[in-house]
Amino acid sequence: MKRILDKKILNKKLVQFGLCAVAVFSSSSFAQTNSIKMLVAFPPGGPVDFVARTVAEPLGKELGVQIIIENKPGANGAIAAEYLGANPADGKVLWFTSAGAVVINPGLYEKLPYNPLKDLAAISLVVNNVEALVVNPANPANNGVEFVALAKQRDVTMASSGTGSVPHLAMEQLADSTKGRFLHIPYKGAAPAITDVMGGHVDGFFGDIPGLISYIKSGKLKVIGIAAPKRSSVLPDVKTFAELGIPGVDSNNWYALFAKAGTPKAEIDRINAAMKKALANEATKSKLLASGAEPVGSSPEELDTIMKSDITKWTKLIKAKNIKPE
């Protein structure tokens, strides 16, 4: 009798275990299907990663899914692009990237393993990060015109975050427009370049406002010009180069969201609508503005137009200057 009872108890426990296993499997399966992976082609902690994580939560709420950030740094964005290409075109894997990987790389690399215009489906512009020219506070130049005047008297050293980077190309735009004597000093990233400007080892640096804003506010750097068609809402008192009478200095290191080419238009439009709502969220907007980024948003078609225009602009400059990747 005891054996029969033991057997019944054992069978009952097995059934309970089986039900639990099914529940766990179902929960895990739901978590996998009810999530979107957002690839970031830069390491954690940087400005692109910060913006991606800032918009991920409100975007996920609007879509009714969990947005999982996965950092895929390396090869100037190629690793993230190839990972995106290896996944189905269903909107479950997205790519959040800065402009360089999609509009500068095509002109910089002869054998790029992806074609942004063919392999990507534009979803939305997310933020604008226009370049600001900063100098050491002790530098005698108080605006872009005075800085150019110095560059016509002597060689002026200009740091960049690397050959072919947006800061480098902004410097080349300034050189073309003014015929000033600017000597390019490439660094491995923005951080050491900024450090050497603050230390007085190099004269100037074009950088994304989010990476500069804390140093500008603390007085460690002096901002003397904005490389954009209009003033930055983050630094409204700083004139653009166009306002200073220096045309053609326009370099926006925007961040945007993409899916794999072939993703259904309905899914692209659904994510786009959710991104617009996420960017309109006051808490999200305030956090982005405080970082120095300007939340903007766009339609997929507008982002497509920006991509095509910027690829043409940057490729022309890269070829004219014979710039080669490091």
Describe this structure in words.
Helix content is 48%, strand content 19%. It is an alpha/beta fold and 326 residues long. The protein has two domains: 34-129 and 254-320, Bordetella uptake gene, domain 1 (D-Maltodextrin-Binding Protein, domain 2); 131-227, 3-Layer(aba) Sandwich (D-Maltodextrin-Binding Protein, domain 2), CATH 3.40.190. It starts with a helix and ends in a 6-residue tail after the last helix. Mean pLDDT is 90; it is low at 1-32.
Structure in a nutshell:
This protein has 326 residues and is α/β, with parallel strands linked by helices. It is built from twelve helices and eleven strands. Helix 2 (47-63) crosses helix 10 and helix 4 runs parallel beside helix 12 (300-320).
Give the domain tally.
2
Low-confidence stretches: 1-32
Strand arrangement within the widest β-sheet reads: 2-1-3-10-4-11
- Rg, Cα atoms, Å: 24 Å
Helix content: 40-55%
Helix count equals 12
Distance between the termini: 81 Å
Order of helices and strands: HEHEHEHHEEHEHEHEHEEHHEH
How is the main sheet built? 6 strands, mixed
Report the count of strand segments.
11
- Which architecture of the largest domain per CATH? 3-Layer(aba) Sandwich
Name the average pLDDT. 90
Topology summary:
Blueprint: H1 2-33, E1 35-40, H2 47-63, E2 66-71, H3 78-85, E3 93-98, H4 100-108, H5 116-119, E4 120-128, E5 131-135, H6 144-151, E6 156-160, H7 166-178, E7 182-186, H8 190-198, E8 204-208, H9 209-217, E9 222-227, E10 255-260, H10 265-280, H11 282-291, E11 294-295, H12 300-320
Parallel strand pairs: 1-2, 1-3, 6-7, 6-8
Antiparallel strand pairs: 3-10, 4-10, 4-11, 5-8, 5-9
Helix pairs in contact: 2-10, 4-12
